[in-house]
Every structure is written in C-alpha cells, then in structure tokens.
Amino acid sequence: MPSGHALPFYALASWLLTELLGALMLRSWIASGGMRAARQRPARSDAMSLPVLAGHAGLNLAGLACWIGFVLSGAAPLAWLALAVMAPAIGLGISTVTIWTPYPGGRRDPAGSAEPGPAESQQTRPGVMPERELRRRLSDDELATQLVDELLSRDLAQRQARTANWSLRPLIPLGHGALAIVTFLLALLAAIATV
C-alpha cells in the first residue's frame, strides 16, 4: 500500500459504519420477533430466511476481516479477497431487503381499521355528513360556527396523529444499503490503487 494512501482507511470507516447500521437492524429484527417468525418459516412465507441473513452477515464480517488484514499488512491479495467476499454479501443483502419489505397493502389508520374503498357510499363513511344536514347547518349561524369548530379540531387531531406516526426508522436500511455501495466503491478503488 503506497504511503499516504487514504482510500483503504476511508473504505474501512465506511465498512464499520455499514456494519453498525446492520447491527442496529439485526437488533431491531430480533426484538420484534423476527427470529421466532424465521423459525416458523415454512408456515410463514413472509418471514426472513435465517440462512440468507446469516450468509449476508457472515460474508460481510469475513470481508471486513480481510480488509482489516489488508489495511494492516498492505497485502493486495487480501484487498481483492475482501472484494470477492463482499460482492455476494451485497447480493444477499439485496435479497434480505426484498424479503423484509412487504408488498404495499392497504393503508390503515392509527386505530387499525382499513380505509374505506371507493365503492362505499359516502353515507356510510365516518365523518361524512348528508347534504341535507350540511345545508341545514350552514343556514344557521350558530350551527355553522359549531361545524367549523368541529372540522378544525378534527383536522388538527389528524395532523397531530400523522406527525406522531412519522419515523426515521426507514432511513436505517436505506443508509445501510447506500453505505454498502460506497464501501464497495472505495474498496475497489483502493484495491485498484495497489496494482
């Protein structure tokens, strides 16, 4: 490794950050019952495959060990070996994302009931007022004021519920994947620089 060459260290830092985010996702998966669901995999087709997940993590750790060996020794074959191990690890990581991410289904409100479909009558949906009642309320100043107050308070409650449900958790897998690509590119450039 040429003296003063910083790419291997950048790749190592990126690799360690990627592993950290992967460990956070693994901890979250285990805490949410993912291990139990994976053991029931023949019965549950939506569960993560333990061999795929173990292969992804194992190959990444093996590649990281090779990369650390390269950084410490400067032996170019270790850099290429780390890349050779990292490529299938990234493929398995993509597989885990496609298994882990469910196909988008119908959205549910915070209470857990499904949103009404377009075929449902407006009369049966909660919060929809018949036109006759709406006209009656709008013709009376006091009832119109109550109606406006009800609408404003309902809108405020819905906004607060949406804000309370917002989460940064989806950014963790996205960051993990982006860092994996950056790590691979940095490692590839560092390995090419050894030639």
Structural notes for this entry:
The chain has seven helices and no strands. The radius of gyration is 27 Å and the shape is elongated. The chain has 195 residues and is mostly helical. The chain has two domains: 7-102 and 169-193; 131-165, no CATH class.
Short structural description:
With 195 residues, the protein is an all-alpha fold.
Task: Give the arrangement of secondary structure elements.
Elements: H1 7-31, H2 34-39, H3 50-73, H4 76-100, H5 131-139, H6 141-165, H7 171-193
Number of domains: 2
Mean pLDDT across every amino acid position: 80
Structure classification: mainly alpha
Approximately how much helix is present in the residues? over 70%
- How far apart the termini lie comes to 9 Å
Please state roughly what percent of the residues sit in beta strands, choosing from under 5%, 5-15%, 15-25%, 25-35%, 35-45% or over 45%: under 5%
- Succession of helices and strands: HHHHHHH
List the total number of helices.
Answer: 7
Instruction: Tell how many strands the DSSP assignment holds.
Output: 0
Question: Looking at the structure, what is the overall shape?
Answer: elongated
Largest sheet: none
Radius of gyration: 27 Å
Low-confidence stretches: 103-124
